[in-house]
Amino acid sequence: MARILLIPGFWLGAWAWEDVAGPLRSLGDEVDALTLPGLDPGDPERLSATLQTQARAIVDAARAADVLVAHSGAGAAAYMATDLAPEHFSRVIYADSAPMPAGFILNPALGDTAEFPLPETWEEVEAAGSSLAGLNEAMLARFRERAVPVPAGVAARPVTLGDSAARLKVPTTVICCSFPSELVQQLRDAGELPLFRELRNIDAEYVDLPTGHWPMWSKPTELAELIHHAVQR
User: Fold this and answer.
1) So which residues are the signal peptide here (predicted)?
2) pLDDT tens-digit profile of 169-194?
3) Number of Cα atoms under 13 Å in the Cβ half of residue 65
């Protein structure tokens, strides 16, 4: 049985997957979640984290034939991990995320600022394109209480990839939440948005989970079921 390795996105630690990990285990899956370098508030070296150190941490945490699940901004480090060690992963699943192409910068506006905190208001979060649909006040309060700023070495530096095409052959599933799968594939084919451009090189499957940008809180059981079914393929 493959193990499922859950990777949270910006501002989040492994705790963010708790409501998904339980249902996955009840379905018989082996599950672990990883707090990426830079997102552990107790780490004195937190601000030195980079996309490269995050990708290496994912590879180091993985076992042979792991299923890798990445949410949101973690898609960058996850894709870089499949580039470093494609043999470690039997499938990669992007939850409201995508494999990001070489040169892509998650937050180019950050510049030389040391870190990228969670915006001060939820209106700013939604204005940046991250839907809060399905989240109640308790969820939002927990999010803000536990959010950790993302180091500039992660948020404001480009994705780097090697020359090998082996990463393109890792079976891939895209779980579409904020945008329906039909629109994601249209944006992929148009090639105008770098976020979806790399998908043109990958024979991915697309599944829909209509909700906001944080499906691990808004629809955790449904997300777990989609991940479990993808694992069986």
Assistant:
1) none
2) 999 999 999 999 999 999 999 988 88
3) 6
- Interatomic CA distance for residues 211 and 176, integer angstroms: 9
Q: What is the pLDDT of residues 123-175, one digit of tens each?
A: 999 999 999 999 999 999 999 999 999 999 999 999 999 988 999 999 999 99
Give me 233's structure tokens: 């393929």
Which of the 8 DSSP states describes residue 38?
A: T
Closest CA to 11 of 126, 155, 196: 155
**By CB neighbour count within 10 A (0-12 exposed, 13-18 middle, 19+ buried), where does 164 fall?**
exposed
CATH of the domain at 86: 3.40.50.1820
Sheet holding 3-7, edge to edge: 30-33, 3-7, 66-71, 89-95, 172-176, 205-208
Pairing of strands 115-116, 150-151: antiparallel
| Residue in the block written with tokens 């070489």 | 102
For β-strands 66-71 and 30-33, DSSP reports them as unpaired
Q: CA torsion sign, 178 to 181 to 186 to 190?
A: positive
Residue type, 56: R
Paired tokens of 54: 């995050």
Contact 156, 105 (CB under 8 A): yes
Number of neighbours of residue 120 by Cβ within 10 angstroms: 9
- Round to whole Å and give the CA distance between 38 and 147: 12
Domain residue limits at 61:
3-232
Domain count, the chain: 1
Helix 74-84 / helix 51-61 crossing angle, nearest 10 deg = 60
